[in-house]
Amino acid sequence: MTFAIIETGGKQYLVSPKDKIRVEKLSDKDGQVVFDKVLLMAGEGAAKIGKPYLSGGKVTGKVLKQGRAKKIKIFKYHSKTRYRRRIGHRQEFTEVEIQSIA
């Protein structure tokens, strides 16, 4: 089994070919996306570990859709002071299908 650990949007993801992942919104609307910040690659042979990134490591993916996640509600409350705040947030994301690891 071939897999890699990539970094995008300040987060790290463990990916394999044909995986679908949701990452922070990318500027690419459609088509291919290339992740070049590869931290680790493993497959049939020994694992390759970057310091911090692998030189020449590349993971390609296909953008499936862009959207917004479900709304989360944030409620702040201080007792005995009449302080109440309610806000909501919807995080934008890009869904990517991993095609190849090289």
Overview in brief:
This protein is mainly beta and 102 residues long.
How would you describe the overall organization of this protein?
- With 102 residues, the protein is mainly β.
- The chain starts with a strand and ends with a strand.
- The protein contains no helices and 10 strands.
- The chain is 0% helix and 60% strand.
- It has strands spanning 3-8, 11-15, 20-24, 32-35, 38-42, 48-49, 59-68, 72-78, 83-89, 92-101.
- It has one domain.
- The protein is elongated and about 60 Å long.
- The strands form 3 sheets. The protein has a 4-stranded antiparallel sheet with strand order 2-1-5-6, with no helix packed on it. A 4-stranded antiparallel sheet has the order 3-10-7-4, with no helix packed on it.
Low-confidence stretches: none
General form: elongated
N-to-C series of helices and strands: EEEEEEEEEE
- What distance separates the N and C termini? 14 Å
User: How big a fraction of the residues is strand?
Assistant: over 45%
